[in-house]
Amino acid sequence: MKIALLGYGRMGQEIEKIATSRGHEIVIRKDAGDSIDITKADVAIDFSIPTSAFENISNCIEKNVPVISGTTGWLEKYTEAVNLCKEKKGAFIYASNFSVGVNIFFELNKQLAKMMSNLKDYNISMEEIHHTKKLDAPSGTAITLAEGIIENTSKENWKLGTEISETNIPIEAKRIPDVPGTHTVWYSSEVDTIEIKHTAHNRKGFALGAVIAAEWIIGKTGVFTMKDVLNIS
Ligand SMILES: NC(=O)c1ccc[n+]([C@@H]2O[C@H](COP(=O)([O-])OP(=O)(O)OC[C@H]3O[C@@H](n4cnc5c(N)ncnc54)[C@H](O)[C@@H]3O)[C@@H](O)[C@H]2O)c1
Ligand SMILES: O=C(O)C1=N[C@H](C(=O)O)CCC1
């Protein structure tokens, strides 16, 4: 498979190692300011920056190249990308987190939220910790976790910070050098605390998931999620 890497930073370079070890060829490595011919690639993997993700994704869809995006912090344009993909009969996957472990954690989080939804003595709160170079907060993964709780409880929104409220899930975003990504959800009452936590030890899990998604999307048309790729029920 000929792969275009849209963004050749920490993730782009990690993906290159995994993709080549699985027999794929990197034909484009795009960074800021580079102009490229995306049609040279069978599939594109975008791990760039929040302000460039939509342009990268729409260029792929316009040129009929399937595209995987892991860039976070651009979701105000997600619906536009979905509509463009449907109109052009393209193929597109966005995931806030491509690791298999986090995608299992997303399902566990929804199940726990369902079980806790009627237990009003518990306050929900969340924390995400990432390296200091991260541009967005809260992390895309934290937003997906919060959405999973909102779907299954009476919470209506999430809010950055630590303030406990009836309607909002507080998300504390911490930045500590070299942390690849740690997410915790707490349900705390006066008598006890339930905690679920995912800790990434490095970026390999994110990169492997993105390459698996790229392999999976070839020959398909539509807008998909990692749940489709991993066949999680
Ligand atoms: N979904 C996931 O599993 C997952 C995992 C890790 C990181 N991320 C996200 O992926 C993104 C990249 O993370 P990173 O750690 O590799 O960041 P990084 O800063 O190391 O790399 C981003 C790269 O994008 C380049 N870039 C800037 N403008 C561009 C453009 N117009 N086109 C292409 N590339 C451009 C930058 O020059 C840089 O090399 C972030 O949004 C991060 O939150 C997602
Ligand atoms: O390093 C990052 O940046 C990460 N971003 C994703 C997010 O925002 O959730 C996934 C974890 C690593």
UniProtKB/TrEMBL annotation:
It is an enzyme of class 1 (oxidoreductase). It comes from the Bacteria. Residues 1-98 form the Dihydrodipicolinate reductase N-terminal domain. This is 4-hydroxy-tetrahydrodipicolinate reductase. Belongs to the DapB family. It is found in: Cytoplasm. The keyword Cell wall biogenesis/degradation does not apply. Catalyzes the conversion of 4-hydroxy-tetrahydrodipicolinate (HTPA) to tetrahydrodipicolinate. PANTHER family: 4-HYDROXY-TETRAHYDRODIPICOLINATE REDUCTASE 1, CHLOROPLASTIC-RELATED, DIHYDRODIPICOLINATE REDUCTASE. (S)-2,3,4,5-tetrahydrodipicolinate binds at residues 131, 140-141. Residues 101-230 form the Dihydrodipicolinate reductase C-terminal domain. GO terms for molecular function: 4-hydroxy-tetrahydrodipicolinate reductase. Its EC number is 1.17.1.8. Keywords: Amino-acid biosynthesis, Cytoplasm, Diaminopimelate biosynthesis, Lysine biosynthesis, NAD, NADP, Oxidoreductase.
